[in-house]
Amino acid sequence: MQLGVKTDPKNQWLLTENKLNTRQLGKAEALMCSGNGYMGIRATTEERYVGERRDMFIAGSFDSFADEVAELPNLPDVVGMQIEVNGHQLNLNQGEVSDYQRQINLKNGLLTRTFKWTIDDQSYQFKFERFVSMDNLHLVVSRVTVTALTTKIIVKIKSGIDGQQTNSGTQHLVEGAKRLFDDHYMQLLTKTGESNINFAFSTCHNFFDELSNPVQMKQQMELGRRQIFCKYQAELEQTESLVMVKYNTIVTDRDRDYDGQQLEDLQQFGLRELKTSSEQSFETLLSHSEAAWQERVWKYGKVAIKSSDSNDQVAINFARYQLAISTPEHDNRMNIAAKGLTGEGYKGHAFWDTEIFMLPYYIFTKPIVAKKLIEYRYLGLAGAHRKASDNQYEGAQFPWEAAWPSDGESTPVWGAADIVTGKAMKIWSGFIEQHITSDVAFGALEYIHATGDQQFALDKVNEIILDTAKFWQSRLEYNSTADQYEIHDVIGPDEYKEHANNNSFTNYTAQWTIQTAIQITDDLKANHPDKYHELDQKLNLKTTYDKWIACVDKVYLLKPNAQGIIPQDDTYLSKKTIDLSKYRNAEHVGGIFDDYNLDQVNQLQVTKQADVLLLLYLFEQKFDAQEKRLNWDYYEPKTTHDSSLSLSTHAILAADLGMQQTAYEFFQRACQIDLGPDMQSSDDGTHSASLGGIWNATVFGFGGVRLLGDQLRIEPHLPANWSQLSFDIYWQQQKVHIEIQANEFTVSTIDATRPISFNSQNQTYQLAQNESVTISLANMEGTLL
């Protein structure tokens, strides 16, 4: 697999850059981003360069500006600094750089950069280290080591808090107080302009010599607009080193662990966090963070791949790291953004990406996080009701783009310019890409089926599904001529087909939602009458149930044509076909828009991403293998894969169809979306759903794990390049280990408190505590151990 970063076959947790290319900064900034789910900081260098994106975000801190939709504000910079040696300000575009290496350790989040810099025949050694703590969510720690190699030097450092950051020009923060406490601790207070979220940024610096002895430094404070810095100066003899450790804490009055009521309380909260942390060494704080990484992340959902290409393991490690730093598991009022916390792309909003591509990872590896992500949607019901009402519908219509849960629809109205008209194109997704509502219901029920958490179903999930079914019933349009209910003017998963009628994915999932709501209502009536009465009061279930019964069997589900092809929508199969090889083989996605505008693409049999094929994957029990293969052969050649969501879905479906080599090729292409050689692919941030998709392709595709209703199926499909795949999942709240080799696979329970069962090749297996079964892939015969 060709990657845009260096890897080490002996340590598949390391990503390395051996040269700083100041014309292509964005790739490494996003891939080597540091974070902990509460905050994310791009891997910008300490010194500044033109074209950098010096971004730091805190999950959930949304703010609007004028008529723009809410976005995560770019917060004050706490990692940048100016360093001067013997009158030369550090800038790697000048002088000579050797032995350069920048590296992120995915295991513990430590970002390290080392190099030798020579200018005017004088050489200096630099080492920069920093991490965002997984132990203390508010803490960022940096360490800088400067060594005089060839001569005595004077080192000057200017470091502090720089609030002059924007979101591509938009300034969200109102300047607050700046001051120095105890001649050591700097603090900058600020708040968002419209959402009025208060922040306290606190910073201090400790200095040491090469033997870790404390060094007293003279300092001079400097205040600027939205800035507070301190300047330090030291003299070093040849071979001597100066070590600076910078401690930063960031707190907001939206934090769960902040219990104050006044701005002064927030100020003191931040200072206490800083003072406590700055009394500990860099190594001690890093060790605490490493332990938290192990406890909170790596002990869940372990995945090990033995492959002829060691970068396959790197890719799954990278995917899990990125999901960890971007998932706000500390707070159910927040969700996973499409770009995580790694860039300004999509403004920090959450999409259907969560339910279809990332929620499965947490359902099967850390269900408590999956539960919080569903709670976020429950908290968003008020905004979903408002959107439905504004559109003259009933029930809950979930927003295409979601920010703070009560905000409702957060999709911008206007997007890029049309290449033909030159006018800004309307972003119709926020208006008519409505399958998101089904996706939310689907993901929530997947959690219930996988965990058996029936209390959560009663508390929240049933209400979500019933409310979304109420929307779909009101959204259906009756065709009296055909005596059927249709859904017109939508966008399905294929966003190259706007204003489609009867998109198959949308219609199928709408019908599924209504059918599921009927089943839930029947169960509530029979087994939970008090809860039924409660939800009837909220949702008028008696009347709504009759409407569901009247329409559910008449929802129009497009059937295969004579060739066995399921139409993507009413008109897709009648549209013109063109040769897509130019665009499918292009180095960058979206090349078709160099030649066509969206209206023209809308009239072609061109698909952006899996649409009908996604339907076949998610609802596989409704379709036989021959149908799947016929539709694969028809739709995949017409798909440009311009969406980062597409490749992993195709990898899974190809594995299901027995096309292991094709599946493996799609898997590796999915891994290359961020990690690959396209040096601009991640400028706006990494692709969270694609990263979830890498895990899905590994476990669901090659591992053969599938949730079919409330049944677990395991039927592996290893590619020829892999000799072994092993991973852990949770099923019915029990930990299960699966190890797959070329000819057999073993399923083991780990400290199970009750038996678990799974199906494989139409045979059911049941395992008790610490029991295993090995199943031959040749004849699928199981042997209990």
UniProtKB/TrEMBL annotation:
SUPFAM superfamilies: Galactose mutarotase-like, Six-hairpin glycosidases
Lineage top rank: taxon: Bacteria
Protein name: Glycoside hydrolase family 65 protein
Domain Glycoside hydrolase family 65 N-terminal: 16-254
Gene Ontology terms for molecular function: hydrolase activity
Protein's UniProt keywords contain Glycosyltransferase: yes
Swiss-Prot/TrEMBL keywords: Glycosyltransferase, Hydrolase, Transferase
Glycoside hydrolase family 65 C-terminal domain span: 706-767
UniProt record similarity statement: Belongs to the glycosyl hydrolase 65 family.
